[in-house]
Design a protein that fits this description.
There is one protein chain. By secondary structure, the chain is an alpha+beta fold. Helices cover about 35% and strands about 25% of the residues. The protein is built from 15 helices and 20 strands. It has an eight-stranded antiparallel sheet, with helices on both faces. Strand 6 and strand 7 form a beta hairpin. The longest helix is centred in the middle third of the chain and has 17 residues. The N and C termini lie far apart (about 55 Å). The relative contact order is 0.12. The chain binds ligand MV4.
């Protein structure tokens, strides 16, 4: 097992990883930009290194500075968290070249999953369903039109190098097809330096359901059930829950087995997430593979009792999976609300000094945050400042517990999205559990 880990991240996830390391008896190195000397992750780590100015391109995305920080502190491994360098294969390669363990899958896994069109082909050949669409990237206009005639409208044009909603276009009418296709290609080229796009039939009112998987270096793979992330706004998830309110035990086993089959097809190691589209008839289609630990991992931790970060570190050090599939038992229901430093109606960022923060507590309540009284939310980074996670025996009780916890949560000095979450939890639409990724539009219509 490692004796010292550098955490190449900031905010709540850096704090979360430091906590796991401390429980494992591993010492920690925080890295930070100029403006984050008094950040919580810096204060609770054993050591810290300043890696550059506020701008992320010069600090949290600065590969040479992070590798140097790992070298001067004798860190044996780097944990990338989520975002930043977590899915950058060059960073995984740079760690390896410097003799530092990257806590995550292989650079090759990151590359395969990052090329969405190639990932789709790998998965399709393995016998996991994908949405009807193109075999690989489409470059020829005529072939594209022929394909769309075959599968029918609406379709969605996606950038091979995109993901998480970046670089895609929905096409509803034949007269828009050529224009949308060419726009998507030129947008992909300028955004990602790669103009490849592929086409899928557009599934309306889909649910976003993803499965947490874990794989060791001997080829053993297990899943930890699913998370339903259908409450999103502009491709940013706002609320996640486990289990999904729409899956029966039979469908849960089915999606779990599909996720394992997908991970096997990638020769996957370490922790990861397989994203699926679930349509109105509960058909399941592979969407994307995420090769990092995710923001919403706590809801899975709550229903399984497994510490995903600790397990991830053990797996990266070469240890086998500590659990077999048969010993994974899902218990109760968990919901996470992402609390952002934003106006709760317009979602405009609201950085600044937190004059008071009082966190909720009591039975079944968890708060993952790096915020404290007297800390200023910097304007340079993501606006998510806390995750409020609850666990209860069923969905109804989890919603009641979330409403109770939200009502206790006090954050003064800045605007937060707590009032938004209070309205959602009180809505009959959320309570019904019957909604897709169109949740926000329907919620806004009702209120
Ligand atoms: C889709 C889809 C419908 N059909 N793919 C969004 C995030 C990224 N992971 C993929 N996404 C989608 N992929 C097929 N074949 C619907 C979405 C989607 C979406 C699309 C357009 C506008 C808003 C959306 C919100 C969530 C999901």
């Amino acid at each position: 097992m490692f004796s010292k880990i550098l955490i190449a991240n900031r905010g709540e996830i850096a704090v979360r990883i430091i906590r796991a390391c401390r429980e494992l008896g591993i010492s920690t190195v925080a890295v930070h930009s100029d403006v984050e000397r008094s950040a919580l992750h810096v204060r609770i780590a054993d050591e810290s290194v300043c890696i550059g100015p506020a701008a992320v391109s010069e600090s949290y995305l600065n590969i040479p500075a992070i590798i140097s920080a790992a070298e001067i502190t004798d860190s044996e491994a780097v944990h990338p968290g989520y975002g930043f360098l977590s899915e950058n294969p060059q960073f995984a390669d740079a760690c390896r070249a410097s003799g530092i363990n990257f806590i995550g899958p292989s650079a090759e896994n990151i590359r395969s999953a990052g090329d969405k069109s190639r990932a789709r082909q790998i998965i399709k050949h393995a016998g996991v369903p994908v949405v009807p669409g193109s075999d690989g990237p489409m470059s020829d206009e005529k072939a594209m039109i022929a394909l769309v005639k075959k599968i029918g409208l609406p379709v969605i044009v996606k950038a091979s190098a995109g993901g998480g909603g970046r670089g895609m276009r929905v096409v509803e009418r034949y007269e828009d097809l050529k224009h949308s296709f060419n726009m998507a290609r030129s947008e992909a080229l300028s955004a990602f330096g790669n103009g490849d796009v592929y086409i899928e039939k557009f599934i309306t009112r889909m649910r976003h359901v993803e499965v947490q998987i874990m794989a060791d270096t001997s080829g053993n793979i297990i899943h930890l059930g699913e998370r339903d992330c259908s409450v999103q706004r502009r491709h940013q998830k706002l609320i996640e829950e486990s289990p999904s309110p729409v899956l029966t035990d039979r469908l849960r086993r089915k999606i779990g087995n599909l996720a394992i089959k997908a991970a096997k097809a990638f020769d996957y190691t370490n922790v990861g997430t397989v994203e699926f589209i679930v349509d109105n008839e509960n058909n399941m289609y592979f969407m994307e593979m995420n090769t990092r630990v995710q923001v919403e991992h706590p809801v899975t931790e709550m229903v399984t009792g497994i510490d995903i970060i600790k397990e991830q570190i053990r797996l990266a050090s070469g240890l086998p999976l500590s659990r077999k599939q048969a010993s994974i038992k899902l218990s109760g229901h968990s919901i996470e609300c992402r609390i952002n430093a934003e106006d709760p109606d317009k979602f405009i960022p609201s950085p600044g000094l937190i004059s008071t923060i009082i966190q909720p507590g009591g039975p079944g309540v968890r708060v993952d945050t790096a915020a404290y009284t007297g800390w200023s939310v910097p304007p340079y980074y993501d606006s998510m400042i806390a995750k409020l996670i609850v666990h209860a025996s069923d969905r109804k009780e989890a919603i009641a517990r979330m409403r109770r916890a939200l009502s206790e949560f006090i954050i003064d000095g800045i605007r937060t999205t707590i009032p938004f979450h209070e309205r959602v939890m009180a809505s009959s639409l959320f309570q019904s559990g019957r909604f897709g990724v169109d949740f926000i539009e329907r919620f806004n219509e009702q209120s």
